[in-house]
Amino acid sequence: MVLEDTALLSRILTLLTLSFHIIYATIGVGVPLMIMIAQWVGIKKNDDHYILLARRWARGFVITVAVGVVTGTAIGLQLSLLWPNFMQVAGNVIALPLFMEVFAFFFEAIFLGIYLYTWDRFEDQRKHLLLLIPVALGAAASSVFITIVNAFMNSPQGFEVLNGELVNVSPFLAIFNPAMPTKVAHVVATAFLTCAFLLASIAALRIIRGSTHIYHKKALHLTMKLGLVFAIATAIIGDFSGKYLAEYQPEKLAAAEWHFETEEGADLVLFGVLDGEEPKYAIRIPYALSILAHSLPNAEVTGLNEFPEDEVPPLWIHYLFDIMVSIGMWLAFIAFVYVAASWRGWKFIKQKWFLWLTLISGPLALVAIEAGWWFTEVGRQPWILRGYMTVEEAATTSGQVDLMIILFAGLYFILGIGTIVVLLRMYKRNPIEKELAAREAQKGGEKE
Amino acid sequence: MTLTLEVIGISVLWLFLFLYVIVASIDFGAGFFNAYSAFTNKQHILTNIIQRYLSPVWEVTNVFFVFFFVGIIGFFPQTAFYYGTTLLVPASIALILLAIRGSYYAFATYGAKINHRGYIYMYGLSGLLLPAALSPVLAISEGGFINMVDGNPHLDYWALFTSPLMWSIVVLSIAAVLYISAVFLTWYANKAGDVKATDLMRKYALIWAGPAIITATGIIYELRGHSPEHYENLLDLWWVFAISFLLFVGTVYLIWKRRNYGLAFILLVGQFFTAFFAYGLSHFPYLLYPYLTIYDSFTNETMAIALIVAFIAGLGLLLPSLYLLFRLFLFDKDYVKGKSDYHA
C-alpha cells in the first residue's frame, strides 16, 4: 500500500516543507541586500524617498523573515526526523557547513533585531546603514553554507566507505565538492534576481493602481536596474551549471533534455511532449546542447541510454528545466528592455501593458525558483547521496509520517494566508502618501 | 572523566541547551502571563513591558534551539539515527507550535497590530504546550521507552504516556518556565520603573517558586524507581543540588523582600545552571540509556576538531554582537522605559 511507503511519504513531507520554505528563504536572502542598496542610495543622493523605501521594505521583510525562520527550523529538524540514516552520514562528513550556517543565521538575527529597533535612534543614517551589512552578509552566508550541504548531496566526496564504516573523512574536501561553486553562485544570484523583480512588481502594482507618486517610479527604476545586473549574472552562472552537469551528473542533464543517444553535435530540446523516446512538438536548436555542455558545437554529450535504468531520474524534469530557463530568459529580456528604453527616453515602458508585464515578472521569478529546485532535487533521484545512498535507504522507519504531512500542510496553509493578509493590511493602512505626510508634519513640528 | 573532544563537545551543547532553556522560558512564560493578564483584564499592565523585551530578541531565542540540534547532529551523528527515528511525532508537534508562536508573534506585533483575545490566548497557551512537547525527550533519554525492532528504534508511546517520570518532567518544565519568566520580568519591569507590572510579576514569581522546587525534587524521587543507576549518580552529586537549593532560597528571599531584583535573577540563573549541569553530569556518559554513549556516537576526530575551531570562531563573532544587542535594548534605560520607540 502506498501509505505504508515511508520513503515516499518522507519525500512528500520534505518537498512540502522545502517548497514552502524556499519562497521565504529566497526573500530572506535577497531583500536585505535591496534594503541596503536603497538605504545607501538614499544617503548618497540625500533623498528621503530611498530611505523610506528601505524602511517600508524592512517592515514587510520582518513578516517574511518570521515565517522563514520558523519553516527553516522545521526543515532543519525534519532532516533528522525523516532522514535519520542520511543525517548520520551528513553529521560525520558535512556537519561543518551545517554548523556554520547556524552561526550566519545567528549573526543575521542579532543585527536584524538591532536594525529594526534603532530607526532614527542614531543621528547619522550611515551608522544605521552599517547595521545592515551584517544582516545582508549573514543572510547570504547562510544560503551559501546550506547550499554547500545540498551540493555535497549531488556530488559527495571527502570520505570513503570501508565495510560500511566512514573513514578518511575530510570536511574541507566535502565542502569544496565539484557542484559547490555553480550551485552556490546560482542560488545567491537567483535570490537577488527574484527579490529585485518582486519589489519591482510591487512598484508596478502601485503605479497601475493609479498612484502617481515619484516614490514608486524611483522604486521601479532602482529594482529594474538591479534586476538586469542579476539576470546577466544568472545567465552566465546557468551556463556554467550546464557544464558542471555534463561533467559530473550527465544523467540529470540528459533527462532534462530528453537526450537518449550519446552523440556529437547534440540538439537542445525546448518544450514539447514525450512519446516513447521521441519528443513531439518540440523546438530543436541544433548544436545548442553540445555548446551548453562543453562550449563546442560538435562535442559529445552522454545520453540516457548509457545509464542503468534504475539510476535514471524521472523524465518529467524536462518541463521543470524548461520553465526555469524560459522564465530566466524572460526576466533578462524585460529588464533589458526597461533599462534600454529608459536610457533612450522611450515612453512605452510607462504604459499600462508594460507595467503589467513587469508586475507578473515577480511572481514568475518565484515560479522559476520552485521549478529550479524541483528540477535539481528530482533530477538526482533515486539518490539522496549520489552514488552512495538511495532515498529508500535513508528514510525513517517511523509509521506516522502520513499524519505529520496533514499537520504540516495545515500549518503552511495558515502561514501562507497569514503572510498575505498581514502584508496587505500593513501597506493598505499606511500608503506612502500618508507616511510622507506624517513625516512632514513631524519635521514641521520639530522646527517650531 | 578526562577532557577529551567528546567531553568538550557535549559541554558546549549542554551550555547552549541551558541558554535556550533560560531565554525560551522567558519567552514562553511571557506569552502565558500576557494571556493570563488579558484574561483577568490586567493586560494594560503587562503588555508593553513584555513586548518591549521580546520584540528585538525573539528571533535570537529561536537560534539557540537550532544551534543545539544542529550541533548535536554534528558532534554526535548517531543521535540522528536514534532520536530522529523515535521523535518524529513529539518533535513535529513542537515544531508546529514553535512555528505558530514565532510567526504569529511577528504578524501581530510588527504587522497587523492584532489585539484579538483569541489570538492572545492561543499564543499564551502554545507557550505552555511547547515545554510540555519538548520535555519528553529528557524522559526518553533515561531509557526504557525505546524498543529495537529489526535494528530500528521504536518509541513505546504507551509506556511513555503512562510513566509518572514523563509527567513529572512535563510539570517541572511548565513550572520552571513560569518561575524563570516571572523572576526575569519582575526585574525588567522594575528597571522600567513600572511599579504595577513589577508588583504583578513579583506575585507570580512567588506563586511559581513553590511548584518549581517541589516538582524538581519529585523527579529525583521518580528516578529512584525508574533508573536506579542514574539515581545513585545523582546522590553522589548531592552537594551541587544543595548549592542550587541555597541559590533558590536566595532568589525567593530577595523577591519577597522586594530587594535587588537584578541579583535575584542572577541567583536564579545560578540555581538552574548548577542543577542543570549536575543533572547532565549524572547522566554521563549516556545520551540515550543504554544504547548510546557520547563515546560510541562521537563523530570522527577531523570533524570534531573542525567543529570546535568553527565554534570558537563563531563565538568570537557572536559574543560581541550579543553584547551590542543587550547594551542597546536590555541595558538601555531609555529603551527599557519606553521613552522612545524606534521601531521601523
TrEMBL record, chain A:
This is Putative cytochrome bd menaquinol oxidase subunit I. It holds the Pfam family Cyt_bd_oxida_I. It is a multi-pass membrane protein. Belongs to the cytochrome ubiquinol oxidase subunit 1 family. One of its GO terms (biological process) is aerobic electron transport chain. The chain crosses the membrane at residues 12-41, 61-82, 94-117, 129-153, 184-207, 219-238, 316-341, 353-375, 403-424. Keywords: Cell membrane, Electron transport, Heme, Iron, Membrane, Metal-binding, Transmembrane, Transmembrane helix, Transport. It is found in: Cell membrane.
TrEMBL record, chain B:
The chain crosses the membrane at residues 12-36, 57-76, 82-100, 120-145, 165-189, 201-221, 237-256, 263-284, 304-330. It is a multi-pass membrane protein. InterPro entries: Cyt-d_oxidase_su2 (IPR003317). The keyword Lipid metabolism does not apply. Keywords: Cell membrane, Membrane, Transmembrane, Transmembrane helix. It is found in: Cell membrane. It holds the Pfam family Cyt_bd_oxida_II. GO terms for cellular component: plasma membrane. Belongs to the cytochrome ubiquinol oxidase subunit 2 family. This is Putative cytochrome bd menaquinol oxidase subunit II. It comes from Planococcus massiliensis.
